[in-house]
Specification:
The protein has six helices and eight strands, in the order E-H-E-H-E-E-H-H-E-E-E-H-H-E. It is of the alpha/beta class and 168 residues long. It has an eight-stranded mixed sheet. The N and C termini lie close together (6 Å).
Length: 168
Amino acid sequence: MIAATSSVDATRELAAAVAELVRPGDVIVLAGDLGAGKTAFAQGFGACLGVEEPITSPTFTLVSQYRGGRLPLYHLDVYRLEALDEVADLGLVELLDEGAVTLIEWGDTIAAALPTDFLEISLTLGDGDDDRVLTFASVGPRWGARRRALATVLGPWLVTDGAEEGTC
């Protein structure tokens, strides 16, 4: 599925719509260039889960934990990891066992270390300054089973369902 937003607020709103569908144990991978909107997505996503504290990029802390909402949220930024071995140091396996939702910025760079089931969202810059294009791809059955629900919540932003491209 491919969706488009034309403002930071719209990207946050889209993320909140996606967050309505998450379940304990879900992993969301955010991919895209610097400035493509990954942290804005995380902010809208967390707000929908009930996170009240500010969500910032965890670039220098690697893992931020947010509790007190509908589900616990782990927000990771693996941009600074230099080797796949460093993923083990993050305790990713333990985080996934806690029934939280895990949102991983730059997660495409550690795909080999991820579980075999996650939703990947690639954010790219659009034509205008605040335009973003978001491509959704499910890896494994969890999000594949929610394809229709995802298409429904993405409706206001949906450009194409991506069926012909093999996404989601």
